[in-house]
Amino acid sequence: MLKKCLPIVILISFTPFLALPQALPKNSAQENKILVKGIIRPLGSISPIGDALIFDQSNKEVTTRSDKNGNFSIFVNKTSKGVVIRADNYQDLTIKIENGKVESESPYSLEPAPEYSGYGIIRAKRKNEISQNSFNGDEIAHTAGVAGDAVKTLQTLPSVLPASPGSADIVVRGGLPGDNSYYYDDLLLPFVFHFGGAQTIIPSRMIESMDFYPGAFSAKYSDTLGGVIQLKSPGNIPQRTSGEFELGMIQSGIYLEGNAFSKNSDVKTNESESNSNPENTKTTTSEKDNDAIGYRLGMRRTYLELYKPLIQKLANNSSFVTIPQATDYQFVFNGNHSNGTWQAYLLGAADRASLSGNLGNSDTASGKNSFSIYTYTEVSGARYNLNLKDGYGLHFTFEQRFLVFQQNIFGDQIDARSHLFILGISLDKKINEMFTYSIGIRPKYVHNSVGVDVVQYPSGDPTIYFDPELAPRVKNTISTDRFYGDTYLDIIYSPIKEIKINPGVNVFKGPSAKQLSVDPRVGVRFDVTESQTLKAAVGYYSQLPAIQYTIPGYGNPDLQLEKNIQYVVGHESKFLDNYSTDLQLWYKTSDNLTGPAVSNSNNKFENSIQSRAKGVEVFLKKKPSDFWFGWISYGLSLAEVRDPGSRIWRNSDYDRTHSLNIVYGQKITSRWNAGARFQYMTGSPYSSVSGGTYNQNTGVYSPSPDGNTYLVNKNDVRNPYYFEVDFRTEYDFLFKDWTLTSYLNILNLFNRSNVTNTTFNRDYSKTVSVTGLPIIPSIGVIAKF
Known about the structure:
five-stranded antiparallel β-sheet; 22-stranded antiparallel barrel; mainly beta; single chain; 785 residues
């Protein structure tokens, strides 16, 4: 039920600040000068604005800049009309001077600019990977229609599709959802998206940048056949305490950052320089960065389940809808030492989802059934970076990860717990401007405990003709200990400035004696001009089979590594300062994928599946400038799987021929912005059946056979196309030291019933469409200080 009103949140912040007077210097050489000094802050925040330009309005050659704490001082003539403060993404502020006196006092607050001025640009970062999309935290937070969340940003890229429409999980270039790897700095995450929650388990305020490598990536990454999502935490130490509190209809959250030790910056004027040349007066600060420990704390909770009756009513003719619930928390600490940096982490996330509705294969007269899923993960670890002499860098990473997965789907019950430990050591060496290399090793140990009471499925995605009523059941509890890991060598060689060659090799060793792979890779970038780049890459990749397929008693412990070969060629261009394009053609072929046992049924699972995928990606982007930004992405692809029984190539369960995204955002005023996202996808495939046959022994219907045997889904028909429009607008109420941001977010603006899956009724006489969430409007406020 929608509430008629929202609680009023009152945030009171008492912040001491240094009131800096404006006084005339007593030195006779400066009797016609006036000293203007103070602190510069954004309006609505106590955070400083560093590197702001300050100049004399009457003599623009007299300039200075603020330090990282926002402090500045400048000498100007008494006859000056004023001092102008200018900073990126803010409106100019003029400090007026009348009769030799400054009319306003410090701190000086700058109003946000009504247009973008280089906002969201990743500066001084040259691409090393051949297939790469990068975003910084500000760009993620203000991407139109994604509600400030990284996962939605990813789903606007070409050939990056939700596993099912509306799902948070993604498939990349025709792969499987489990083929992707997710990192937060050097920490390997079991997943990065909340189940069904369409958001990352880490809030955007704790993400400084995000790099996404959809394929053909370098040797630094292992155990991955799909894409790599690399989230990076902020590297700076916050200068003072700040944060935000969000109260919305769908979720609430809190975020705080600051440092563990108080650091007072003493503003000092260089007296000798001031006396001789007051126009060039400089501000210095005395502080020790090594004395501070930065911290960032966050927690969020969704409560979409409270609106279940309303959602079901808005879903119109849907047979059922999923109602997810998500919680997460984050503690990140960082600091500096004399020769490097360190970070410490504690992250956690819990997800719960359930549904009920008219489903096939039900054992009730009503034809209804249900499922529930619960996951919990806790990740902790530390990273230590040491800068050595002669261009060497040494990096240590330790991680422990605890994962709980509980599932009850149509009577199949799984209770799995996993405890993983990873130690990473790498050494970087820059020999000269032409040659750099990195070598590393990552041993891993994992203890798994799995309790199952499930049907023995013949493969990961059983076909519509599989009858669970006749299949044997497995009921067992298994504990395993596994040691595995990888080592790598990655080289960057530039024989000339315009060419960068990135060869490397990754040696991956699984827990089984048969699981060893040596994977060479190479990528080449050639800058034809400053704005035109040609690129190409090829590489071998390996990954472990999913743990459920290797469990003794249920799976096959002797499965080999899954493998593929990936190829990419492409062209990048930049034009008109703020525009760029990226065209890529890609192809990959996979074998040794886990599938049904075809040579020996006692194996239960074998490396019996082959797949292939190819496609074209087009990405046109306008970076934030003037009053708007946005991009258009289009992917044309074909993903196929080879049936190990018939040897016929068929559409993959995740094949979607076309995907189109249009993202647009703009600043309406300095305090008001809005944006929208348009998404179109070809419908997902499914297998047709001609009807059902009643089984007197089991009392249920089974799909009528059509004379063929299918070990993978034949996927001969498709669901309707998927189309969704999302909208978001924000307005900032700026107070002296804090900001209240109000937002309106609307998912599925036109309330289209997008089909996410197609199943069948009890007797297989007609199809049953499973649809995604209906229109979901959400309003809320975020208090920032």
